[in-house]
Predict the 3D structure of the following.
Amino acid sequence: MRRLAVLTAALVGLSVPVPGTAAPIWRGGGAPDGLTATRIIAEADGTLVAMISPEGITASIRGAPFRRQPSSGLQLGDFVVTFQAVAGGLRAVDDSGDVYASSDHGRTWHLQAEIGGIANAESAGDGAIALGIDSARPDRMLLAFADGGVQRSSDGGVSWFSARPVAAPPRPEDEFAFVPSSLTFAPDGSAYLQIDDRLWRSPDFGDTWTPLAAPPAGALTVDPVASDVLWVAGTGGVFRSDDGGLTWRRRRTAAVAVVPSAADPDVAWAIDRRDVHITIDGGASWRGLAHAPHTDGSGDVAAALPGRARSICIDDATTLWCSDGGAFAPDADRTAGAPASAFMVADPVAPGRAVAAQGRLIWETTDASVSWHRVAAPLDDYVDVVITRAGTFVSGLHGVRFAARGSTTWRSLAGPAGISALAADARGGTVYARTATSLWRLGGSGPFRRVAARGLHRGVPFFMSVGGGGRTIAVTGLESAVSTDGGAHFHRVRPSRQLPIVAASAFDGSTLVAGTARSLLRSSDAGRTWRRTRRGDASEPLADPWHRGRWYAISGRDQILLSTDDARSWRVLAPTPPVASRSELSACCLLSVARDRLWGTWVFGTGIWWRKIDARRR
């Protein structure tokens, strides 16, 4: 859980490395960019393309792992209004009305049209507009205005001509009261235009418009293979029309979004923030799918796969989850390689081994980050990992699980329930788990046992450090506290609210080190008094449990600090790894130490790295 505290507290603030500092020897890294998509779409050849920011594109080309696209020529504004797959490529439209086109899965783009300044020729005002692009014939576009006027282009937006306006109601005093909320082309080339609570259909590219029954409140979706099938998802329920919007039938309770199949009009998925349901009979019945990925509450991060009637993929926190009509599973082909955004801990005794938790997955490397593979742990919302000589402990929404060293079998441990922070004494193997209301201790092979924890503040568990032979516990939360008797009693450290990270010495039960935005502090009396040992921004103080008196920390987001006199003084050991994309470094940084090497995680696409520890240098 300390990793969550570090991630939320440490934003980008990279400084220039100290001139003359010798380049370090870092190995590993190579983690791919994380797939934290804002929108994801499928092209006809099976390529998945995701927008990971207003100016970032990543693609999985025909099943290969996702790779960041150069996206040269793309100069999108602050908000992308349209991002869709069309025949022969992609289209992206920003909120200023610039239309961009790509024919190589987002690698290169060209500005196709500028429609932001086009006014409605049928009236003096232009008002709000909606743009529709025909996916089958992408040179065909329609523009709709708030007063009902419609413009059309047959050459990709180069020239525009008036189409027949829709019969919009008289313009009220508020000229933006009737805002075109959607303009969507159906597979047969007809267009559906929604303005406020009214819906029209044009079968002839805007020559005529037919008013339809008022649709239910919610987001309108046109089926990609059946032009007469429409869906609406909203708080009032999920509705379907089989006659092009003339009539509507309620098909299920409320959902955030509906994603129709790319191959079968009777198949669709209803998506909520934690549940995904499928129908294979046009909405007459639904069933939930196991291991449903979490979404941001919309269908923008979901894509139905072309040519596969019951296949859908959904992005969930850097991992792509796919279903062929049954339970969801991580798509190992597209997201294999390494955990792109994770917290990682080193194995204290096995050289080259580290374990990382990423969302609901656990990853492992046994060759010092050259390669990573998924661990067959049960799916859970994981928040922490620790490793001892006995094995690996992981904490998730459903409690603490354990796999003995050398075993692939995971078992749930009795004791702490729900999310808990974990910490362990690397030398002795004592493990502590802290939930929001209690503290648990595990020693040897026995079960977790609740400890008294008198004086410990009850609240959300944050970073916890164990040292002093497993007897000293430093806890950071709303107020920092320390126990020197194995958790029986805690006292608040001073100043408790100004110390975001407090780490305990592995050897001395009274020595603590704290990192703040202004300095590194040391206490020799279990947190009752403190002395500044280094000025400047510092984070992630970490005691080396194998070499007495050695500590590590990070300063300035790109310098590794070392102390060999038990944190009384510090020097720059080396810059952080030479990651290739520092501009994408969203948070910094996480350290872990094994007997023979120092590990570091530079999160969100910059990799997991390590360097050898030379314990003889003082």
Summary: The first strand starts at residue 27 and ends at 28. Confidence is low (pLDDT under 50) at residues 1-23. Residues 2-9 form the longest helix (8 residues). Helices lie at 2-9, 332-335.
